[in-house]
Amino acid sequence: MAEEFARRAGLTFTVPSLLLRALTHRSYLNEHCEALEDNERLEFLGDAVLDFLSGAWLYGSFPEMDEGQLTRLRSSLVRTERLATFARELGLGDVLRLGHGEDTSGGRKRPALLCGAFEALVGAMYLDAGLDAVARFMEPRWQSAAEVILRDETHFDPRSLLQMWAQAELGQTPKYQTIHSSGPDHARQFEVEVHLGNGIHGRGQGFSKQDAAQEAAADALAKVGRPAKRVGRARDVE
Prior knowledge:
The protein is mainly α. Helices cover 59% and strands 10% of the residues. The chain is built from 12 helices and 3 strands; from the N terminus they run αααααααααααβββα. Strands 1-2-3 form a 3-stranded antiparallel sheet, with helices on one face.
Protein backbone atom coordinates (compact mmCIF):
# COMPACT_ATOMS: atom_id res chain seq x y z
CA MET A 1 0.00 0.00 0.00
CA ALA A 2 2.82 2.42 0.85
CA GLU A 3 4.59 1.57 -2.40
CA GLU A 4 1.44 2.17 -4.45
CA PHE A 5 0.89 5.49 -2.69
CA ALA A 6 4.45 6.57 -3.47
CA ARG A 7 4.02 5.62 -7.12
CA ARG A 8 0.76 7.58 -7.45
CA ALA A 9 2.29 10.59 -5.71
CA GLY A 10 5.37 10.50 -7.93
CA LEU A 11 7.68 9.82 -5.00
CA THR A 12 10.70 7.54 -4.84
CA PHE A 13 12.21 6.52 -1.51
CA THR A 14 15.64 4.96 -1.37
CA VAL A 15 14.87 4.09 2.25
CA PRO A 16 11.29 2.71 2.17
CA SER A 17 11.15 2.45 5.96
CA LEU A 18 11.10 6.26 6.14
CA LEU A 19 7.87 6.36 4.16
CA LEU A 20 6.34 3.63 6.31
CA ARG A 21 7.24 5.57 9.43
CA ALA A 22 5.71 8.76 7.99
CA LEU A 23 2.45 6.86 7.49
CA THR A 24 2.37 5.47 11.04
CA HIS A 25 0.19 7.34 13.54
CA ARG A 26 0.90 6.90 17.24
CA SER A 27 -2.45 5.14 17.72
CA TYR A 28 -1.18 2.31 15.50
CA LEU A 29 1.69 1.54 17.88
CA ASN A 30 -0.75 0.76 20.69
CA GLU A 31 -2.21 -2.13 18.71
CA HIS A 32 0.71 -3.41 16.65
CA CYS A 33 3.85 -4.49 18.42
CA GLU A 34 5.88 -4.77 15.20
CA ALA A 35 5.74 -1.00 14.66
CA LEU A 36 8.68 0.58 16.45
CA GLU A 37 8.22 4.30 15.82
CA ASP A 38 5.36 6.64 14.95
CA ASN A 39 5.56 9.69 12.69
CA GLU A 40 5.69 12.44 15.32
CA ARG A 41 9.44 13.08 15.11
CA LEU A 42 9.18 13.23 11.31
CA GLU A 43 6.25 15.62 11.73
CA PHE A 44 8.45 17.92 13.83
CA LEU A 45 11.18 17.83 11.19
CA GLY A 46 8.79 18.34 8.28
CA ASP A 47 7.26 21.37 9.95
CA ALA A 48 10.71 23.01 10.17
CA VAL A 49 11.54 22.10 6.56
CA LEU A 50 8.27 23.55 5.28
CA ASP A 51 8.76 26.80 7.20
CA PHE A 52 12.23 27.27 5.73
CA LEU A 53 11.43 26.27 2.16
CA SER A 54 8.20 28.25 1.98
CA GLY A 55 10.03 31.35 3.20
CA ALA A 56 12.83 30.86 0.67
CA TRP A 57 10.34 30.27 -2.16
CA LEU A 58 8.29 33.34 -1.28
CA TYR A 59 11.41 35.50 -0.97
CA GLY A 60 12.50 34.56 -4.48
CA SER A 61 9.04 34.55 -6.06
CA PHE A 62 7.72 37.88 -4.74
CA PRO A 63 10.48 40.51 -4.70
CA GLU A 64 7.83 43.25 -4.45
CA MET A 65 6.35 42.02 -1.16
CA ASP A 66 7.37 43.53 2.14
CA GLU A 67 8.10 41.48 5.25
CA GLY A 68 4.57 41.69 6.61
CA GLN A 69 2.99 40.46 3.38
CA LEU A 70 5.52 37.63 3.08
CA THR A 71 4.78 36.57 6.65
CA ARG A 72 1.02 36.54 6.07
CA LEU A 73 1.33 34.58 2.86
CA ARG A 74 3.70 32.05 4.41
CA SER A 75 1.26 31.54 7.28
CA SER A 76 -1.49 30.85 4.76
CA LEU A 77 0.66 28.36 2.84
CA VAL A 78 1.65 26.25 5.86
CA ARG A 79 -1.45 26.48 8.06
CA THR A 80 -3.17 23.29 9.17
CA GLU A 81 -6.05 23.32 6.69
CA ARG A 82 -3.78 24.09 3.74
CA LEU A 83 -1.47 21.17 4.50
CA ALA A 84 -4.49 18.96 5.14
CA THR A 85 -5.76 19.91 1.67
CA PHE A 86 -2.43 18.89 0.15
CA ALA A 87 -2.72 15.58 2.03
CA ARG A 88 -6.25 14.99 0.68
CA GLU A 89 -5.10 15.70 -2.86
CA LEU A 90 -2.48 12.97 -2.47
CA GLY A 91 -4.92 10.53 -0.91
CA LEU A 92 -2.67 10.40 2.13
CA GLY A 93 -5.48 9.69 4.58
CA ASP A 94 -6.33 6.45 2.81
CA VAL A 95 -2.91 4.92 3.41
CA LEU A 96 -2.21 6.02 6.99
CA ARG A 97 -1.60 3.32 9.54
CA LEU A 98 -4.07 4.13 12.32
CA GLY A 99 -5.30 2.36 15.41
CA HIS A 100 -8.82 0.95 15.19
CA GLY A 101 -10.33 3.59 17.45
CA GLU A 102 -8.72 6.47 15.56
CA ASP A 103 -9.79 4.98 12.26
CA THR A 104 -13.42 4.41 13.20
CA SER A 105 -13.74 7.87 14.73
CA GLY A 106 -12.89 9.55 11.42
CA GLY A 107 -9.17 10.13 11.88
CA ARG A 108 -8.44 9.72 8.18
CA LYS A 109 -10.42 12.89 7.47
CA ARG A 110 -9.39 14.96 10.48
CA PRO A 111 -7.49 18.10 9.35
CA ALA A 112 -5.01 18.12 12.24
CA LEU A 113 -4.13 14.47 11.69
CA LEU A 114 -3.80 14.93 7.92
CA CYS A 115 -1.65 18.02 8.43
CA GLY A 116 0.65 16.12 10.77
CA ALA A 117 0.91 13.21 8.35
CA PHE A 118 1.78 15.55 5.49
CA GLU A 119 4.50 17.20 7.59
CA ALA A 120 5.82 13.73 8.45
CA LEU A 121 5.89 12.83 4.76
CA VAL A 122 7.91 15.97 4.06
CA GLY A 123 10.27 15.11 6.91
CA ALA A 124 10.77 11.63 5.45
CA MET A 125 11.40 13.07 1.99
CA TYR A 126 13.99 15.46 3.42
CA LEU A 127 15.88 12.67 5.19
CA ASP A 128 15.71 10.45 2.12
CA ALA A 129 16.56 12.91 -0.66
CA GLY A 130 17.32 16.37 0.77
CA LEU A 131 15.94 19.88 0.46
CA ASP A 132 15.97 20.05 -3.32
CA ALA A 133 13.65 17.05 -3.61
CA VAL A 134 11.21 18.57 -1.13
CA ALA A 135 11.34 21.91 -2.97
CA ARG A 136 10.50 20.23 -6.29
CA PHE A 137 7.57 18.49 -4.61
CA MET A 138 6.22 21.56 -2.80
CA GLU A 139 6.76 24.50 -5.13
CA PRO A 140 4.04 23.63 -7.69
CA ARG A 141 1.61 23.16 -4.80
CA TRP A 142 2.57 26.49 -3.27
CA GLN A 143 2.31 28.17 -6.66
CA SER A 144 -1.29 27.01 -7.11
CA ALA A 145 -2.25 27.76 -3.51
CA ALA A 146 -0.66 31.22 -3.54
CA GLU A 147 -2.56 32.17 -6.68
CA VAL A 148 -5.84 31.37 -4.92
CA ILE A 149 -4.79 33.20 -1.75
CA LEU A 150 -3.70 36.30 -3.63
CA ARG A 151 -6.89 36.32 -5.68
CA ASP A 152 -9.23 35.91 -2.73
CA GLU A 153 -7.54 37.84 0.10
CA THR A 154 -7.72 41.60 -0.34
CA HIS A 155 -4.76 42.56 1.87
CA PHE A 156 -2.32 41.84 -0.96
CA ASP A 157 -1.35 44.70 -3.23
CA PRO A 158 -1.64 44.91 -7.04
CA ARG A 159 2.10 44.43 -7.64
CA SER A 160 2.03 41.13 -5.78
CA LEU A 161 -1.12 40.04 -7.60
CA LEU A 162 0.37 40.92 -10.99
CA GLN A 163 3.61 39.12 -10.11
CA MET A 164 1.68 35.95 -9.31
CA TRP A 165 -0.50 36.17 -12.41
CA ALA A 166 2.44 36.83 -14.73
CA GLN A 167 4.47 33.94 -13.36
CA ALA A 168 1.56 31.51 -13.50
CA GLU A 169 0.18 32.52 -16.91
CA LEU A 170 3.21 33.81 -18.82
CA GLY A 171 6.25 32.50 -16.96
CA GLN A 172 7.52 36.09 -16.76
CA THR A 173 8.32 38.71 -14.14
CA PRO A 174 6.85 42.21 -14.58
CA LYS A 175 9.37 44.98 -15.17
CA TYR A 176 8.67 48.52 -13.94
CA GLN A 177 10.07 51.68 -15.52
CA THR A 178 9.69 55.28 -14.40
CA ILE A 179 8.97 57.23 -17.57
CA HIS A 180 8.24 60.71 -16.22
CA SER A 181 8.37 62.86 -13.09
CA SER A 182 7.14 66.38 -12.49
CA GLY A 183 6.40 68.94 -9.78
CA PRO A 184 8.39 70.37 -6.87
CA ASP A 185 10.43 68.10 -4.61
CA HIS A 186 7.85 68.20 -1.81
CA ALA A 187 4.99 67.20 -4.13
CA ARG A 188 6.68 65.31 -6.92
CA GLN A 189 4.57 63.07 -9.14
CA PHE A 190 5.84 60.00 -10.95
CA GLU A 191 4.55 58.08 -13.94
CA VAL A 192 5.46 54.39 -14.17
CA GLU A 193 4.90 51.74 -16.83
CA VAL A 194 4.90 48.01 -16.21
CA HIS A 195 6.18 45.80 -19.01
CA LEU A 196 5.54 42.12 -19.68
CA GLY A 197 7.50 40.71 -22.57
CA ASN A 198 7.72 43.26 -25.39
CA GLY A 199 4.48 45.07 -24.59
CA ILE A 200 3.48 47.82 -22.16
CA HIS A 201 0.73 46.33 -20.05
CA GLY A 202 -0.04 49.06 -17.54
CA ARG A 203 0.57 52.68 -16.57
CA GLY A 204 0.09 54.54 -13.32
CA GLN A 205 0.79 57.80 -11.51
CA GLY A 206 1.54 58.59 -7.88
CA PHE A 207 3.43 60.78 -5.43
CA SER A 208 6.10 58.09 -5.10
CA LYS A 209 7.54 55.59 -7.53
CA GLN A 210 6.08 52.80 -5.44
CA ASP A 211 2.55 54.21 -5.53
CA ALA A 212 2.81 54.82 -9.27
CA ALA A 213 4.00 51.24 -9.77
CA GLN A 214 1.04 49.95 -7.76
CA GLU A 215 -1.33 51.89 -10.01
CA ALA A 216 0.44 50.56 -13.09
CA ALA A 217 0.05 47.01 -11.81
CA ALA A 218 -3.64 47.60 -11.08
CA ASP A 219 -4.07 48.96 -14.61
CA ALA A 220 -2.38 45.87 -16.08
CA LEU A 221 -4.53 43.53 -14.00
CA ALA A 222 -7.69 45.29 -15.16
CA LYS A 223 -6.62 44.89 -18.78
CA VAL A 224 -6.22 41.13 -18.39
CA GLY A 225 -9.50 40.80 -16.54
CA ARG A 226 -8.06 40.42 -13.03
CA PRO A 227 -8.94 43.71 -11.28
CA ALA A 228 -7.25 44.30 -7.93
CA LYS A 229 -8.75 46.06 -4.94
CA ARG A 230 -6.39 48.63 -3.46
CA VAL A 231 -6.06 48.38 0.29
CA GLY A 232 -4.21 51.45 1.46
CA ARG A 233 -1.00 53.22 0.58
CA ALA A 234 2.03 51.05 -0.12
CA ARG A 235 5.30 51.64 1.65
CA ASP A 236 7.46 54.16 -0.14
CA VAL A 237 10.36 52.26 -1.63
CA GLU A 238 12.38 54.15 -4.22
